[in-house]
TrEMBL record:
PANTHER family named in the record: P3 PROTEIN (PTHR10361:SF24), SODIUM-BILE ACID COTRANSPORTER (PTHR10361)
Name of this chain's protein: Bile acid:sodium symporter family protein
Main location class: membrane
Pfam families per record: SBF
Bilayer disposition of the protein: Multi-pass membrane protein
Stored InterPro entries: BilAc:Na_symport/Acr3 (IPR002657), Bilac:Na_transpt (IPR004710), Na+/solute_symporter_sf (IPR038770)
Length: 300
């Protein structure tokens, strides 16, 4: 019964709060920036919504990972970028405005793209004995309630009560971080035997996927002739996922705890890769004139 309460109530509520805290940091101008830099956004969408799922699928096939774990990684690849990508972008001296805009857009688009990718993954990777029906309509509605609506409410608070939003946003972000840590610990503890027995296979895969997408996002952006700061940002946005959403989809929507293991593992390991990437790139970040960007210049 306690496990059911955690999966059906606590996880969705925690995710909703995390997304609400993200919304507190977003304003309409974050979306308006898209009109001023559509190429960067389009490249980011290509990397995050097309190349990431395709790369994950190809790596799964090559590695031989099957069943629930394969579906779990595909669920992770279908999730939007994590809110902490904005912090990593700041550390890397990337384009924080682009990061905010992309995070906002990705959170909305995921409502439509995630159910389709999850449905395909279940059909392709789940064996007969473990096949789980993908309730696309129900999943879309739940994703909207847990992702889209809380972000919108956070933005409403930021728009109507900016002073209040600015005052509570730091505290909300800290609470969201603690909730994420607790969610990952709970998922790992609940499935400790599976995690222990498969760590040697899943951890290297998670690290490889993270590094691959950090480099893929950066290099594709450079090939598209985006600035170095924008390229750094899109590298981070392509690789940093909303692991909490992956856990909720696996445990709450599909009710398959084994599928939550990849999200829990990646949710921890992606910060290691992200921080190494951020600190490696920050020394090379430049502004439009080619001068080094000071740390304070990355703030909004």
């Amino acid at each position: 019964m306690q496990g059911d309460i955690v999966s059906s109530v606590l996880l969705p509520v925690a995710l909703a709060f995390i997304m609400f805290s993200l919304g507190l940091g977003l304003t309409p101008p974050d979306f308006a920036r898209i009109a001023r830099q559509p190429r960067a956004l389009l490249v980011g969408m290509l990397c995050h919504f097309v190349l990431l799922p395709l790369a994950c699928f190809a790596m799964i096939k090559v590695s031989g990972i099957t069943g629930a774990f394969a579906v779990g990684f595909m669920i992770l690849a279908a999730c939007p970028t994590g809110s902490t990508s904005n912090l990593l972008t700041y550390i890397a001296r990337g384009d924080v405005a682009l990061a905010l805009s992309f995070t906002a857009v990705a959170s909305v688009l995921t409502i439509f793209t995630l159910p389709m990718i999850v449905s395909f993954s279940l059909d392709y990777f789940a064996g007969t004995a473990q096949r789980v029906p993908a309730p696309i309509g129900t999943m879309t509605g739940q994703i909207f309630l847990m992702v889209g609506l809380p972000v919108a409410l956070g933005m409403v608070v930021r728009n109507r009560k900016p002073a209040l939003a600015l005052r509570i946003e730091p505290k909300a972000t800290k609470i969201a971080t603690v909730l994420f840590i607790l969610i990952v610990i709970a998922a790992a503890a609940k499935n400790w035997a599976l995690l222990r027995d498969n760590f040697g296979t899943l951890a290297p895969f998670a690290i490889a996927l993270n590094v691959t997408m950090l480099l893929c996002g950066f290099l594709v952006a450079r090939l598209a002739r985006l600035s170095r700061r924008q390229s750094i940002t899109l590298g981070i946005e392509t690789a940093v996922q909303n692991a909490t959403l992956a856990l909720v989809i696996a445990s709450t929507v599909l009710k398959q705890d084994a599928m939550a293991i990849p999200g829990a593992l990646y949710g921890v390991l992606m910060y290691a890769g992200g921080l190494v990437f951020a600190y490696s790139m920050r020394r090379f970040a430049t502004d439009e004139t080619g001068a080094p960007v000071a740390a304070g210049a990355a703030t909004r």
